[in-house]
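Section 4.2 – Deliverable D4.2 (structural model, holo form)

The reporting period included a commitment to supply a predicted holo structure for the target in complex with iron/sulfur cluster. Inputs used:
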Amino acid sequence: MIIVVDKAECVGCEECLRVCPRKIIFMKNEKAEIVQRTCDKCERCIPACPVKAIKTVSILLNESKI
Ligand code: SF4
Ligand code: SF4
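Output (C-alpha cells):
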C-alpha cells in the first residue's frame, strides 16, 4: 500500500505539508507530492486534506522498488 495525492483534486492548500511528521510532502506545480521512498504510511496526511485528495492505493509491485 502507498499513499498518493490525487493531483486532479489537490487545491494546493499545503495542509498536508504541515501535518506530515517526516516532512516528505512537497509542492510541485502547486500540487502536493509525496516522496514514496521515505513515507512511513502513518496516514496522518489523509484526514488533514480538506478535499480528500490523499488516498491509499494498493499496489502489486514490489514496494521496495518505489
Ligand atoms: S503517510 Fe505519514 S509520512 Fe507519509 S506522507 Fe502522509 S503524513 Fe507523511
Ligand atoms: S492537504 Fe490536500 S489539497 Fe491541501 S495540498 Fe495537501 S493534498 Fe493538496
